[in-house]
């Protein structure tokens, strides 16, 4: 008996299994997208796309959009909507097209999670986690039915961490980080942590990461910042989310009967305090364990959802893939409970009016998320600070009959 190291054949087989599961998941999402009208957001995005076609993806921030909510999406989302609207002229259904980016992002996340986890655990665990992302009910429900851009932003954020920590490609990591906040501003909470991880890698790494990030940010955000700066800031940077009380802290505050001014403060200016907590936690973890950048991103995005004072079923995707980065138990537990919230929520009369059972399930999902973040953060801090991910993967290989060895990569 001895230590068996997973060979390249085992890795290829596991990767193929994840690709098959991700492909099946993508087809499932697209079948849902092609055969369901989706929530109100689908029609709202269609309205945004028509407005962008008329005003342009830059000037749209400066124009009132009658019958539509505030256009709070970063510049890259505008270019995406412009492209989707052009495709409708070829006969494609916008209601189906708007759900393609998120569904494709889930496919990418399944592969990303596999590649991230296999460097830190056994290949079997990595295969389980990658497959879990592919079949996650919360991701299938939100990407296949809802079709917002949250999953796309999460995919870019995890890709940035993977490229930085595992692929040693800081320039590409900076590009991915900039793209993440250019399609949805939510991952801005992980950007400081990524910069800290790059800093801990040495000056050349930091310079390359900064160059990639700054270049794409200037290219994507520059035109709007130069043309309609105040409108962009008001619509996107200062957007605090909806005022519904369905999830998390505001839900608990409402149930406990806290004064209305307190809840209003939490959903208003006070929400920036919770954002700062998330940023500080991510920066601290990145400083202590820069090699664990993917896990740091997962914890930070999950903490943002945990402390979020806005409610939306699509927001549940912020933590879905990341929880599998933290571990299979955390990932499957979160996906199972919160997936049920998403399925029942979307099956109701309105995605923003949850029934009493769904509200209780949401509270249970919040607790599962809290527990998963705690165990995940502890696992990150328990890793030796100077040990590369591939070395830990070799140490954690299962004890079985001895076979010829090869490196994990």
TrEMBL record:
What parts of the sequence cross the membrane? 90-114, 171-198, 205-226, 262-283, 295-316, 322-346, 358-377
| Keyword Transmembrane helix found | yes
One short Pfam name that applies is PMT_2
Query: Start and end of every Glycosyltransferase RgtA/B/C/D-like domain?
Result: 72-220
Highest taxon, organism lineage: Bacteria
Keyword terms: Membrane, Transmembrane, Transmembrane helix
Q: Kindly provide the name given to this protein in its UniProt entry.
A: Glycosyltransferase RgtA/B/C/D-like domain-containing protein
